[in-house]
Amino acid sequence: MVYRGGLSPRVVFVGEAPGAAEDRTGLPFVGRSGRKLDAAIERLGLASDEFGVLNLLKCRPPENRFDPRAAATCRPFLDRQLAFLRPSLLVSLGAHALRALDPRAPPILRAAGVPRTGGPVPVFPLLHPAAALRSRRWAERWDRDLVELGAWLAGGVAQPV
Ligand code: URA
């Protein structure tokens, strides 16, 4: 369960951990959340070689529960992936991914939809797509934050280096 996407992507979407569908296929975000994410990526107009998708955790955690110790163990793999891919923008999906990529970020509901430019690579926080599937309220928030992300991308901030 490693990566799907281009080898020189402009944008890398960072999720939390593989679920059952991801464990079966060996690819990130291929279940229901993945379909929600793919629809968003299509709306953003990113071509297949312009984006990548990966997770903080490389194995499915027991009972799908996010484990910070597993995240620490997997961190060197994530860092190697990002060093290889060298994206211009990271999009964190959910609270755990945001915390891992930008430990000083405010809570997810405050951070989502607002780019964070303090680190070496800008991070654009989104809710986790599973949240957008869970309620109308979060679906609307997901849609609004996507519009912001689209504007950020269109502004040329995340052009290939
Ligand atoms: N949720 C995630 O965070 N990652 C996946 O790959 C699937 C669901």
Description:
There is one protein chain. This protein has 161 residues and is of the alpha/beta class. The chain has a single domain, classed as 3-Layer(aba) Sandwich (Uracil-DNA Glycosylase, subunit E), CATH 3.40.470.10. The protein has seven helices and five strands, in the order E-E-H-H-E-H-E-H-H-E-H-H. It has a five-stranded mixed sheet with strand order 1-3-2-4-5, with helices on both faces. The protein is globular, with a radius of gyration of 14 Å. The protein starts with a strand and ends in a 7-residue tail after the last helix. 37% of the residues are buried. The mean pLDDT is 94. Bound molecules: uracil. Uracil binds next to loops.
- What hetero molecules are bound to the protein chains? uracil
Outline the biggest β-sheet: 5 strands, mixed
Oligomeric composition of the shown chains:
single chain
Q: Could you tell me how far the N terminus lies from the C terminus, measured between alpha carbons in angstroms?
A: 27 Å
Helix and strand element order: EEHHEHEHHEHH
Strand element count = 5
- Percent helix range: 40-55%
CATH-assigned homologous superfamily? Uracil-DNA glycosylase-like domain
- The name of the CATH topology is Uracil-DNA Glycosylase, subunit E
What is the total number of structural domains?
1
